[in-house]
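#struct-help
A.M.: can someone run this one for me? Single chain, 533 residues.
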Amino acid sequence: MEQIGTLNLNNLEIEDSGNLFTTLLNSYEKIIMESILVSFGLDIFINDQHGGDVDTIHNVREIGRDSKMTYKSQKNKEAYEDTPKYNSNTHGAEVRKDKVFVTTKNNYKKERELGNSYDEYTGKKFETVSGADLDHVVPVENIYSDRGRILVGMDTKDLANQSTNLKITNSSLNRSKSNLGVEDFIRERGEKNSLNELSRDNLRNFEKISQKNIDAELYKKYYNLNFNSPFMKDTLRASSSLSLKIGMKQVIGLIITEVWFTIKEDLQKFSTFNSLKENFLQLKDTIEKAFCKAKEKYKELIDKFKEGAIAGFLSSLTTTISNIFFTTAKNIVKIIRHTYVSVIQALKILFFNPDNLLLGDRIREALKVLATGASMVIGIIGGEAFSKILNNFGIIGLTSDILQSFTTTFVTIIASCTLLYFIDNNQMMKGIFKFLNSFDFTSSIDKQIDYYKKQAEYFERYAAELLKIDYEFLKEITEKYENAAERIYETKNQKELNRVLKNLFDILEIEKPYKEDSFDEFMGNPDSILIFK
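D.P.: on it. Structure tokens below:
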């Protein structure tokens, strides 16, 4: 039997019931039920969050701008809330008193004294020593209040006083720019400061370079590979938690599926003439039988847990890495998770080949797994699109959630039936699988080896049984029966045969089935009976 994960799908016979949809649903009932149950029904145990489960610099900066974005760690949230509001006289002064800032400012002053100093924003030469200020391209207040900086825990002055963030400009422009970002400054005060196109481009380029270097410092410190760093701890915690949850979800899904189909099979045998009590007792026995049957599949349960655990860990890790660069929506997180589950199962079939399938059969079963995974993704996307349509009509809340769940499940079922039927019944696909099977010599040899291994095992068992036999006793019994057969063969008439048979009863210690001295006496007694022991 071939399997998809733990579902036996090989040589699946599609029984025509008259209605195509009903026929497909009946044929793929088990795989669809487990997919729907595991993917959507048991998702209540998993809380997919907008932006994943780990705080990243990119995501915390989205808080306030993205209504769905929140801190994932209470500790990080409290660190931001406990940060005092920016004060120029306190926090700004600390940055301006920093050794790097003071040294840079003095160096620019020496250049002006030599007459070699230019305004880095406007490009104009300074005619006097005075009238120039050292400006922070990215304002100190913006750096200090940056959620990303607070998340990493870096000192404001170390970021604000980078060489790329310190530019000399005229005092008027510097004071006018104040704590504004470049775009805000250009929009609000650009004309007042007579900024030409060159000056605007310089400001934009300087800000782009400066912000890039600030981010590089933050990323370097926060996203390091030290397992004791807060980010790595949070990442491993989130990945391990999801790994355990997905593994358990896969196991629970398999158990419920096995139990349900056992109960369903036995329910069809219930008698309509039974009393209610008898039916309940029979149902109790059926449920116990179903759970016992599920327990017998402990090896499949272990495999299911492993698959789910690996998929959960990798999907969480992928989600976290993605959120370093962009925000993953809640449904994107779910899609990543389901994709990994399908891919892990498909890779297991392709490379580990637990059921010793031929190459074409392995590819077919792997495609079935990927098809069910793709169906879930299609269902999620379809449900999300339908939810947006409902919102446009003002349908929100519980009603919208119920309709979205129904749409997601319905689309998943339709897509699963369509894709699985195509893989199983399309003539071109059948031809490809058959062709690939003919070239898979390795699996064919493996099957032959397994066959001879089983035969050797049978012979070992048979030999073990033979060793238990008393050969002397066997030889003695064999000789007795050979002599008896020879004596019977040599008899020449009925009378002699009767005499020989009577003697053999005594020799072979066989008890006669009648009590009379002769068979004639037995036949003459109407009350006699034959008793064979």
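A.M.: thanks! Residues 1-18 have pLDDT under 50 and may be disordered.
D.P.: also worth noting: The first strand starts at residue 3 and ends at 4.
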